[in-house]
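Appendix B, record 7
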Amino acid sequence: MQSTESQPAGTSPVVEFEHVGLRYGAGPEVLRDISFRLEPGSFHFMTGASGAGKSSLLSLLYLALRPTRGRVSVFGQDVARAGREDLAALRRRIGVVFQDFRLFDHLDIVDNAALPLRIAGADAQASRRDVVELLQWVGLGGMLEARPPVLSGGQKQRLAIARAVVARPRLLLADEPTGNVDDQMALRLLYLFEALHRMGTTVVIATHNTRLVERFAYPELHLEAGSLARLPSRRARLL
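Structure tokens (predicted):
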């Protein structure tokens, strides 16, 4: 396990939050005084009950929102000072698995999964081989010409994951990535995230699946009513 505490002194964090708060409109704060760092190559689960603030924190992490107060830095850049082009460049280094998938219905499975590579300017023919191999890994190799409207919820989930990881992002954020798949596929997908992690990707997985959290020895970012607690792995807490 690579924890944030194990990184060499002086390593620049991939993400840093300093006393961050977030509110929607004139409502109360949904996140309060959030401070943490994500070091390069670290892996964290994000846990907490429904309504604890996980989706809001993920939205800040993938730059869909800016904080109401405090400071958020991503890849060393202060988000509050970043212009539109700077934010777009930062987002290209982040892979995101959304709960609502956000697939393109007019594109087939291969073209959906290949989008990050196409945006990055990768060679279409060379990237297709990588995409097909990844789709086979997530169990979609037999339906490459299918389009999202004919896919089940679990198949859409696996396609969304393939798209998020295909370009080997520096930061991977996944919101309930195993919510629509069986236990065997959930494990297979976690092994895929682990493989990226071993190659240096920083991984954050928001989940309610306590069995996965207990099985994999990674620390937690635990949210309760908008406040954050950093916890060691559940396996370590049992020792």
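Remarks on this record: Residues 104-168 form one domain. Strands lie at 15-23, 29-38, 43-47, 69-74, 77-78, 94-97, 171-175, 202-206, 220-224, 227-231.
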